[in-house]
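Reopening this ticket.

The earlier resolution said the output was attached, but the attachment link was broken on my side. Pasting everything inline this time so it's all in one place.
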Amino acid sequence: MDAAIVHQELQAGLAQLKTRLERELEHLHTGLNSLNACGDDAERWAHELYQRLIERRRTTLALFFSPR
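Inline output:
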């Protein structure tokens, strides 16, 4: 396979991954905003879980897509 084609496919795959991660991050923020951090135990637990997931997605985006 030609190196240019492989490179193009890799770039396209990375662009799709970035879009998917950004979309997921938006959904996580929406979910987090719907929770009450001072609510019952289940709601506090869910709030904390959303915060952890958001931080992981941000870390993944920074790892793969920050300029080096």
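Reporter confirms the inline version is readable. The first helix runs from residue 3 to 33. The radius of gyration is 17 Å.
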